[in-house]
Amino acid sequence: MSLDAIGGAGGGWLLAALLLGIAELLVPGVFLIFLAIAAAVTGLASFALPELPLTAQLASFAAWSVVAVLVGRRWYADYPVEGGDAHLNDRASRLIGERVTVAVAIEHGRGRVVVGDGTWPATGPDLPVGASARIVAVKDGVVEVEAITLPST
After folding, report:
1. Which of 133, 146, 149, 153 is the most exposed place for a label (fewest CB within 10 A)?
2. Cβ count near 140 (within 10 Å)
3. What is the pLDDT of residues 8-63, one digit of tens each?
4. Residues 105, 128 contacting (CB under 8 angstroms)
5. H-helix or E-strand containing 62?
6. Which residues, 6 or more positions from 54, have their beta carbon under 8 angstroms from its beta carbon?
7. What are phi and psi of 147, to 5 degrees?
8. pLDDT in tens, 55-85
9. pTM score, two decimals?
10. Could you tell me the residue ranges of all domains in the chain?
11. What CATH class does 91-147 carry?
């Protein structure tokens, strides 16, 4: 396929912009989109100025790439993308606040509690098997618990 078949150099740059945009969607990294914008602007410039030499087109692409990246960096600094869950990949911190049941009595500050479908080593006040507790911290794979006191009636 020749450049004339897709609209000359301008069509080639717009095709490059489309491919870069698709690549950004397939492998999101918030970088290729800026290059796609630069390629699109260069493509429009090539349509407006059909005799634009290749060196000028490459210089345009380079300049618009820098401009697009700088604008993008400023945008993301002013409007940061909020994450859905700050503890998404930190299982231990996700456990804090969980209600657990003592599986092996906590005696002299050590025992085991049921967390999900398994048991974890635990530290905390002395508690009998079956007592309810709340995880208050996790350190080195050991959960620290506090007793859950039921309100008196």
Report:
1. 153
2. 6
3. 788 899 999 999 999 988 887 768 889 999 999 999 999 888 888 999 999 999 99
4. yes
5. helix 54-78
6. 9
7. -70, 145
8. 999 999 999 999 999 998 898 888 887 766 6
9. 0.51
10. 3-78, 91-147
11. mainly beta
